[in-house]
Each structure stands twice: as structure tokens, then as C-alpha cells.
Amino acid sequence: MKRIAYPFFMLLLAVAFMASCVKGEGTEFEGYDDTAIVGFSITQATVTKYTKTKAGDKDSVYFQKITPTKIQFSINQLENTIYNNEALPYGTNAKKLLGNFTTRYGGIVYLKDLKTNNPVYYNSTDTLDLSSEREVLVYSSNGTYKRSYKLKLNVQVAQPDSFQWKDALTSDANLASLTGMRMVNFSGKMFVFGVNGNSVKAYSTATNDGKTWAAISPNITFDANFAQNVVKKDNALFSINGTTIYKSSDATTWTAVGSTSVTRLFAADSNNLYGLNASNEVLRSSDNGATWTAETLDSNKNNFPSVNVFGFESKIESTPTLSSLVVVGNLSNNIGDGTQKQVTWSKVVDSSNGALNNAWSFYGFPSNSNNRLPELVNMQVAQYGQLLLATGAETLTGTNNKQVQRLYVSKDWGVTWSKSTDIQLVNLAANSTSQVAMAVDADNYLWLVYGTTGKVYKGIQGRFVK
Hints:
By secondary structure, the chain is mainly beta. The protein has 2 domains: 6-152, Immunoglobulin-like; 163-464, Kelch-type beta propeller (Neuraminidase), CATH 2.120.10. Helices cover 5% and strands 43% of the residues. It is elongated, with a radius of gyration of 30 Å.
């Protein structure tokens, strides 16, 4: 693309000449004085692919030409910007592309040269360099009008299925002293609640930080079970202190909502809180914990988890008023004896007016025990994209010691589980502990906070890197 601006003026002369000729034949057309870019697409790109040799012992690289016409580009005519929301594949050579512009009224496209900043006429057969933001000019066919756009190409900057941990963000003495932790992503911060001796403490850090943790100074004294009852609903945190439900918008100031027989808060959906009473009956509150009604189960209530319980709501795309609420947790019998405790339940939540309240469904006990989580003491569960991840302390082979060793993954919302091969904990120098907290922030970073060492890690899968 080396044809600099002067050919454009020759083109305008030619247009003017043709216009005069046409006029001489009795036609008044002299070209349009308005134009805009109304479409753009990448018609060809080269992608570097990484794979293994047939023997599987060496890395191999090859190049593939693709036609990514399904990648849609948006054009904001108010801000004069052109961009793609869906990124091109990782490995795309952004310096050697072919593209096509569509203009209104036969507008003529030029791009500012990356070195000289001079306008260069663009033809769809020219190699297009979009490795950095480009200024695109479109001239009206009669040369009296010009419009400028900013064109930015988004390319995946990491392999979609790769997962990269950041180095340990910190080693915090306050976090190291916590047991029975629970971490929540709330209001742009990560909050960790946990037991320190005879008291429950809480600490927070901004999601873009992780190195500096501030102590929370609440207006109430947290009881021993407070940490395990913390649940996020909309723009508030809820927990139980004694026999009272409390609500907070900042984790510092807690307001009593009402007295309750609920002994465990375990989940929330868009409209309701869910809890258990001392008899392991499931209860629901639609008024933020002021009053509670019994839920219907399709199986024995003793199969409902009451320890390390985590709930996850996901919208059902085909029906906007419906969502699925999945709950994963441990049974409370004989904790620490090594037998499997994990169970999964779910219910369909209907938020439409006059909707029926659906029963909870038990997933049952898998016939193959390998599809069920091993006993994970202090189990943590988090939703990561369309996956559920779980970790906790499990018995070290040949010993009676329990340590956090690995992550487990469920690709079917808790029906079956297996060891994660994509996200490994083996390289983290903090596994010699039985205490851990895990959560995911709004930018899809997975966070781990380890007790004993106080080390904090966060990592992200390539498909979520911005």
C-alpha cells in the first residue's frame, strides 16, 4: 500500500472530467457531497498455530490462512470508531491482513500511513496493517467532504484454553492466621472472612490490587459462624449473627433485618435468600431475611449439604424469567474421615409474576465414585465461566495429613467432577496448608488465598484476557 495522497487528486481530476463530459451529454450529475463508512470486514488473515508433533514430545508451529468474515465489526457513527467485539484468534498476524470497506455514495477510502502520517489510497487487495489503531479517511465522490474514523482491531492476546497464574501477590500475616475462610467478590473488592482464634475477622483488597489488604472494622462483633454464612445478593452482603439476619452494603456497617430460626445461609438468587434450619430444612426468604417459608425437596432433606455450601445462579437464555440455581456442598456426617461428602442440588427459579415456586432436585450419588469429589475439608467452590471449580484439603497419599493439592472441575454444573488439567495448583508454593479461600472477580480472575502462609494468587484463562 504505497500509493500516497497525490493519486487521489488525480482521481478527483478524472471525476471532474467525467462529470463535465456527462453534463455535456445532458446529465447534471457531478458526484455526491456526502459519504460515510458503513461496513468493514477482514477478508483474509494468517494465524500461527501451536501444536505437538505426532509423537507428542515436541512443539510444532504451522501457519493457517483464515477468512474471518463471521467476525462482525461495529461502526459508531457518533464517535467515528470501527472495532470488533469478538476478538480474532490468538496468533493472528495483525500486520498482514486483507480487508474490505463499504462506503455510502461511492466514498473513497484512504488510511493514514503509520510512518509518514500521509493519507494513502486503499484498495481491497492491499495488505492491511492493523497492529495498532489506524486513522481511516473517507472522501465523498466529488471531493468536497471528508470524514475520519479510528479503526481498532482486537486480537486474543493469550491462547483461549491456557491459564496463567500471576506470581504470589503478597504473603499477608493477617490472612495467614485465618481458618474456615470464605471469600466474596463484592463492590469492586475481594473480601475474605475467617476465624482467628476466638474471633472472626474480615479483610479486603481492590480487585486490581491484591497486595494490600485492609482490616474491616465492623459495627457488630461477628460470631464464630459468621464467615461461613456470608452470601452476596444484588448490591448487599448478608450473614447470620446468633439468631439475627444482618445486611451490609460495605461489609463494615451491618443492619439487623430480623430474627430467624435459620442457622445457615447458603445461597441467593435475584429475588431470594436461601437457608437451613437446625433440622436441615431448606427455607426461602423473598424479603431479605425478614420472613422465611419452607421449600419443597424431591429427596430426603438429610441429603442436602450443610457444610461448605456454595450456590450459583445462571440465567436460562431461552426464557429470560427463568434461571437455574445450583448448590454444591458437603454433608455434615463424620467430617475428616475420608469418605466422600459432596452433593449437588438445583432448582429452577421463575421470576415472572404469579410464578410457581419449583421444588429442589437432588442430583443423586454417582454410580461411579470417580465422578464425585473426594472428601475436601474446608471445601471451596467457584463458578468460572461455564465451569464449576472446587478445591480443599484432601488426604496426602500414605499419610494422615490433609493439604490443599489440586483443583477439580465440573463441566456439567456439578453432576460429575474430575481433576482439572487446565488449571493446576502444583506450581504454587503455598500448598502445604489445609486452609484456602477461592472466588472469581468481575474480570474473570480466579483468586486463591491460603491460610498458614497468607499467600495470595490470582490467574486468568486466555479467553478472558482483555
